[in-house]
Amino acid sequence: MILTSGIVLCLAYILGLLSTIVFWGGYVILASGIGAAIFFQSQLGRALPSDWRIGQKPIVWLAAGAIGLLATLYFQARVPQPAANDISKFVASSGGSYQQQTVTVRGKVVSVPHLTRSQRIQFWLEANQLNDGKEGKAVTGKLYVTVPLQKTTGIYPAETISVTGSLYKPKPATTSGGFDLQAYLAKEGAFAGFRGHQVNLLAETRAKWEWWAIRQRIIRAQGHWLGSPEGPLVSAIVLGHQAVDLPYSIKDQFVQEGLAHVIVASGFKVSLILGSLLAVTKRLSQRLRFGLGTIVLIIYAGLTGFHLPVMRATVMGFGALIALVLQRKRKPFNSLLIAAVLLLLINPLWIWDLGFELSFLATLGLMVTVPPLVKCLDWLPPTIASLIAVHIAAYLWTLPLLLHVFNITAPYSVVVNLLVTPLIFIISLGGVLSAITAVVWPLAGSALAWLLYYPTHLLILLVQFFCQLPGNSVTTNAISLPELIVFYGFIWLVSRGLPNLRLRHKFGSNPQI
User: Fold this and answer.
1) Strand 93-94 and strand 97-98: pairing?
2) Chain centroid to CA 431: how far?
3) pLDDT in tens, 159-187
4) Closest of 375, 315, 321, 308 to residue 347, by C-alpha
5) Which of 55, 221, 480, 481 could form a disulfide with 442 if both were Cys (CB 3.0 to 4.6 A apart)?
6) Residues 399, 417: Cα–Cα separation, whole Å
């Protein structure tokens, strides 16, 4: 395998971010780079096969070690820290415990309100003033606000409001695998929560063509005639569940059966949209197809809220469009690596985001494991073989990480995914058409969405059926980090050896026949 300088440097950056799991990790990467440079400069390194001549350049390995160390420093610099006047600094405490105190916080709403499991409404507030009943204080910081359902009517992003209630500091998770509110808020750059009981609108703003407003227009149109839960489910499949209040009962069932990827804005939808666009524009010039494809990718990324899986797929889709214009064969692994580095340059903290990790592992699994699996399944029709291979590969490459984090697996996942794939394809394509139409003409968008009622209802019934089967969810022992690495190494080796196993099955012990 020929190592290129670019691949080495990209991998060094990613390894540097991964090494932040220990405080001295960056220095290990630097030392490794120096060691590799010395090795390739030595007589032993020069004696390696000529295929490794690029890797023999010491400057490449020295640069890789330096990049790995700089990546760890960049990661630490980007870790959110509360400012001196952050609102979390004003949480009342006594004797090490935080006290409940009624205060009023003023600020700007920076997210669309969403329903929580406790039937309260949650939104993010950019705080700028705190009043504790004695005096007003200028503050900064992002605040995680929850208020009663009936108190948020007419609250939208960019509006200035005041909320009366109590400040608190979140506590870390008490059980392994439990939801860690403290870590979640820190990842979002927030360090305090607020339980409100009264909301007052101070400055009203109505933006018709911001991304969130367009999303709400689509969601309302799709739910108008479909009703619940079919309407929210169609919107979740198209835009992701982060954009719509999908009932938690439906959301939990999809997650339980290994179908979480269905209700998130994922690379599958990006591939579907881009592939459909390129198919219907094949008579146009390559430059025009490139322009249309770029516009569609940007619009869909904006509508879904620029979530990580979509951003990864958008970058890869953009690479495919460039290859189309330049008439060059696209290298999927290089596209994936470039997508990873670009996203991690934007925000290095994403390296420890579970959604980011699962998205890239699933995509890597499709590249590594699907081709040999399809060859092993060549006794099946090509379409069916590819369908089975895709779901098996995605399952295998995400299972170890899920076991490491949650200690739970869904045995029926592959079967369920195979059964619902045709329905997902129909709902996704129809939902996208409905969404585009709803932006221009909501009533027509509602009519198109209504045609998806029976596929959507059937999808819900299938998921509910498998949720009721015995053994639909199995709890396992926790997988340690070294075991996780061994698992992925084993999956990689098996994937590389599948074609040889297929040859032996066909021709016996002598594959040269």
Assistant:
1) antiparallel
2) 20
3) 899 999 999 988 776 665 567 788 888 88
4) 308
5) 221
6) 14
Contact 431, 304 (CB under 8 A): no
- Count Cβ atoms below 10 Å from residue 427 Cβ, excluding itself: 24
Give the pair of three-digit tokens for residue 386. 């590819």
Work out the widest C-alpha separation in the chain, in whole angstroms: 90
Percent of the chain with pLDDT over 90: 30
The enclosing H or E element of 94 equals strand 93-94
Report strand pairing: 142-148 vs 190-203: parallel
| Spatial distance between the Cα atoms of 146 and 507, rounded to a whole number of angstroms | 65
pLDDT digits (tens, 9 = 90+) for 268-324: 778 778 777 877 887 888 888 888 888 988 888 888 888 777 787 788 778 777 776
For CATH 2.40.50.140, list the domain ranges present in the chain: 87-203
Helix (H) and strand (E) counts in the chain: 18, 11
* The dihedral formed by the CA atoms of 301, 307, 309 and 311, expressed in degrees to the nearest 10: 50
pTM over 0.85: no
Calpha distance 417→322 (Å, rounded): 32
The yes/no answer on whether domain 87-203 falls in CATH 3.40.120.10 is no
Three-state DSSP class for residue 281: coil
Give the dihedral of Cα atoms 272, 277, 282, 287; nearest 10 deg.
-120
Whole-angstrom Cα distance, residue 60 to residue 497?
A: 31
The SS3 call for residue 329 is: coil
Query: What Å distances lie between residue 8 and 51, 95, 132, CA to CA?
Result: 15, 52, 55
Residue tagged 């982060």 (tokens): 242
pLDDT tens digits, one per residue of 417-458: 888 888 988 998 899 899 999 999 999 999 999 999 999 999
Strands (DSSP E) contained in 110-169 are 114-115, 120-131, 136-138, 142-148, 160-168
pLDDT tens profile 70-118: 999 999 999 988 988 999 988 876 555 555 678 999 999 998 899 898 8
- Dihedral of alpha carbons 277, 282, 288, 289, sign: positive
Q: Which residue has the higher pLDDT, 168 or 354?
A: 168
399 in Cβ contact with 413 (< 8 Å)? no
Q: How many residues does the chain have?
A: 513
Distance CA 16, CA 379 (A): 44
Q: H/E element holding 23?
A: none
At 283, give phi and psi (nearest 5°): -85, -10
Beta-carbon contacts of residue 467 (< 8 Å; ≥ 6 apart): 253, 256, 257
Which residues, including other chains, have CB under 8 Å from residue 208's CB and lie 6 or more apart? none
DSSP 460-483: HHHHHHHHTSTTSSEE-PPPPHHH
CA distances from 418 to 388, 395, 401, 482 (A): 7, 12, 22, 32
What is the average per-residue pLDDT within 237-254? 89
